Amino acid sequence: MNDLALRAINLTKRYGRFTALDDLCLEVPAGEVFGFLGPNGAGKSTTIRLLLGQVRPTAGRAWVFDSDAADAARAHRSLAYVPADVALWPQLTGAEILRLLACTGPGVDLAYRDELVQRFALDTSRPARAYSTGNRQKVALVAAFATRAPLLVLDEPTSGLDPLMEREFRIAVAEARDRGQTVFLSSHQLAEVEAVCDRVAILRAGRLVEIATIEQLRGLHRAEVTVSYVGAPPPGLELVPGVDTVEQVSPGRLRFSLIGPPAPALRALAAAEVTALAIREPNLEEIFLDYYGAAKSTR
Ligand SMILES: Nc1ncnc2c1ncn2[C@@H]1O[C@H](COP(=O)(O)OP(=O)(O)OP(=O)(O)O)[C@@H](O)[C@H]1O
Description:
Blueprint: E1 4-15, E2 18-29, E3 33-37, H1 44-51, E4 59-64, E5 67-68, H2 72-75, E6 79-82, H3 94-104, H4 110-119, H5 133-146, E7 151-155, H6 163-178, E8 182-186, H7 190-196, E9 199-204, E10 207-213, H8 214-220, E11 223-230, E12 243-250, E13 253-258, H9 263-269, E14 273-280, H10 284-295
Parallel strand pairs: 3-8, 3-9, 6-7, 7-8
Antiparallel strand pairs: 1-2, 1-4, 4-5, 9-10, 11-13, 11-14, 12-13
Adenosine-5'-triphosphate is lined by residues 15, 18, 20, 38, 40-46.
């Protein structure tokens, strides 16, 4: 099987004169847990629909392993999909739905499925019409995680789950990774993406603005440094490359923001009698807001 689970080349979708997705180039290696982020309307669902072969690209192409994404019947043999709005057969019970879904995919680990039903505290004896949004989501997640499909495409999969179930979700993603499955996770839950993903892509107004590991993203964004010292403050700190907004928070205490490697700033600090130093790296939410803040006016 191909080493790439997903590949998009110049993938573009226009609706009339409006460009929902613009020239997306993306590669997701098999076995990776990949986060797909973007504000509302950025083009995440459009991308997923293109990857699933549900809409045709205006330009470009996409592949799921060796299959052209447009050949949905073939491509879907190697993936399981959890949509953002899970719709189930209202008259069937959870158990009947899980049995039905098991017949459609590339095979199911039944023992693991039963374990997931317990872990997600899902009452499978009830008809789907009686399920809450979160319970419908659980049925779809249990069905997806229990398949042996090499690729799991999850579109906002935890929006209806409570924190305990979110925790189960994170564990299930880690187990999928351990089995060698690839996970493509579109999410608004930035802490979740930060916790489970190897790499993330950030989409803004239909364009890919960043694709990197969380560590790399942190390196591109501001860390907040707080330094305590006795005697004279470190001289010339504001002139050091990467240092910005130096602020005296109290006598003997400075705070500044730092982008890039800390070595030049540390050399400058060495000139003072530093008694304490704290570097707080940005979390994914702050990184995302950096991009999002700059994007507000563009769509
Ligand atoms: N069938 C369509 N016809 C016209 N415009 C569309 C169509 N589908 C999507 N769009 C537009 O394309 C843009 C991207 O939509 P998309 O649903 O991909 O965003 P998203 O990132 O998934 O957003 P959300 O996080 O809100 O789900 C939006 O501005 C949307 O209005």
